Amino acid sequence: MIAISKPYIGEAEKQAVIEVMESGMLVQGPRTAKLEEKFAAICGTQYAIATSSGTTALHVALLANGIKPGDEVITTPFTFMASVNSILYVGGRPVFVDIEEDTFNINPQLIEAAITPKTKAILPVHLYGYPCNMDMIMNIANKYGLLVIEDACQAVGARYKGKAMGSFGTGCFSLYATKNIMAGEGGMITTNLEDVAQRCRMIRNHGMQRRYYHEMLGYNFRTSDLHSAIGLVQADRLEDFTTKRKANAAFLNEHITSVKTPQVKEDYEHVWHQYTIRVDGGRSRDAAVKNLTDAGIGTGIFYPIPAYRQAHLVEAGYGNLSLPVTELIVNEVISLPVHPQLSQTDLETIVMEVNKL
Ligand SMILES: *Cc1c(COP(=O)(O)O)cnc(C)c1O
Q1: Per-residue pLDDT tens for 343-355?
Q2: Statement: 238-354 belongs to CATH 3.90.1150.10
Q3: Ligand 1 centre distance from Cα of residue 58 (Å)
């Protein structure tokens, strides 16, 4: 079976974990500080703050930006649920805007119409590693005085007009095992604002700067140096991994002829967290998934249901919402393996089988 994702675990990752074990200092410490420095360098931001996951990075970023109960946050319904749940955690109200058919990202043309006096922030998601149109999003944010919190969990190293994702607003990243670089579990927040960075550090650690003096309500959203040690090794591999993902995607784009393949526009640097095709024209996606599975090709459906149709959002009153492009796309997408560990034979097998669909 050609896996849809496969974490790379080399000797250096193993050695890094053993070194932390032997040091006896397992909790968040020097390796985490180093990983934060590396992330700030990757994103070209002043600050980076590590957390326990991408989900907690989003949660902390929203809190640190002052999103409060009743505040509206504009986002996409076509994303991993954590993007939306983080808004709910702080008592905010997600306001869903439909996506673009060609990029799968939030449609910036539709954002302005969704703004109300309660709108506080835009939370764009760079889905599959493809940047959102940040010129349009930042222009709208500036015009209406809105905050921007980027869900860049799938987009580490991606760039829009040469500027790294996570450096436009407050950036949130995940180091979950299947992400482009991983630490097993882990997250990261990037920002250029010192006060936001400071609040993130405090919220992550029970509102403390000085031990046992709690200046605000905080949480335990720390990571551990065991995880950060893995993340540090992986951060050094980022360029190599991204180069391989790009080459794999280029090969698939060149040779797949049976279905719509993902296209990259000028000014956008895609880091191919997922390579996602569309089974359209009335063809059955279920049948396509079955054929590929039978042929030994792992696939993923990211994501099969719009966020507003998930049980807790239906309960919260979103049940009647229906955004046409999202409704279409959730039924057509299939992600194919594109990870750095694919062999040339794997790529050729994928092309051959997809071209039979
Ligand atoms: C992975 C992911 C998250 C959450 O990250 P975790 O580390 O799994 O908590 C959030 N948003 C998106 C778009 C993701 O892909």
Answers
A1: 999 999 999 999 9
A2: yes
A3: 9
